[in-house]
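Give me the 3D structure for CoA-transferase family III domain-containing protein.
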Amino acid sequence: MNDTALGAIALHLPDNMRGSIMKAFYTLNDRKYIRVHTNFPLHRHGILSMLGLPNSSDITRDQVQEAFKQWDASAFEEKAVEFRMCAFTLRTFDEWDNHPQGLAIKNEPPRKVSSLSSSCLHPLANNKLLDLSRVLAGPVAERTLAAHGADVLLVTSPNLPALPDLDVDTSQGKRTTQIDLTLAEDKEKLQRLIFDADVFLQAYRPGALEGKGFGTHEVFDSLVQTATGFNAAESQAYAGFQRSLVSLLRPKPFPVQALDHAAGYLLAYGVNVALCKTLTIRGWLMGSSLAAVAQWLRSLGRVLPEVGFGQAAKPMPSITSPPDLEVSDLSSEWGLSHTSSDGKIMTALKHAAILSETPVKEATAPISLNSSLPEWLPLSV
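Predicted structure for CoA-transferase family III domain-containing protein (381 residues):
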């Protein structure tokens, strides 16, 4: 997304969510690496508390690194799980394959569809999809389904922090509303929406919604990359190509959130399969696991290092205005508004799948997480 094209709209994360410790690798006492996610204030505060550091915007990466030297990787990882924080040890593929979690998902498919019980312009028109997901696979899946005609209503809580840069991009074609599940009347609103929904997608951590009478599931892409060995493998391949031992000292993350986007598209595909199956049997449960998607991506094999990192490898295009030609060819313009007449424009990547007879919907993307009433649109004819 080209930030310059946003014009006068200030779509920026709050200062306390752009700290220097966000999405960082750190070296521990046993010389292993750990990766932390501190996208949201709750996670940042929790990691700092575990390290015995104050929750201050003045905390530097060097201070955090020094505090991490007091920990071994496995001990911090176990403590992070206990505190429900996002932190995982960097592992090689072999280490992940022999880890209890790696063994548990060894034969897990990247998506699952199972039964729960016994012509339009867009193929998903008149399907009502309730989206209770955040960062990043779930929003990508529902954005894809919205592009093919579904009425996707994104429901968020006014009590949780937002990620405006990501939210506006992954909300293309959706409507947005906010519901406070601490209020009895808002719980009833969500129950009414669920009653009429064709698809209910939620991606909160286990137990988060069950305690309020609803469902649950959450994973974090970069943490799964780290735990399953991708970052270690990328680092080793790059080091072999450069013939430099120094390169082995730093993990090499993916340049994009590959697991999230792959899982999102697989999830969208699975929802389509489930909707087709409801023609004969009503009610299907669709699931997608980032760890299982990581296993599947590994099974596809990897290119040689000289192909991935050498002269044949095309560098990532720079963020410029106007956009790089490669980016502009893959981009489309969206109106940013509550209505279609506000005149503000966002440049974003085109949808991945564009059908020959039923073009994807490209119109407006809400810049607010509360742009619509919590109700479904009338059926189209």
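The chain has a mean pLDDT of 76. Let me know if you want a second pass.
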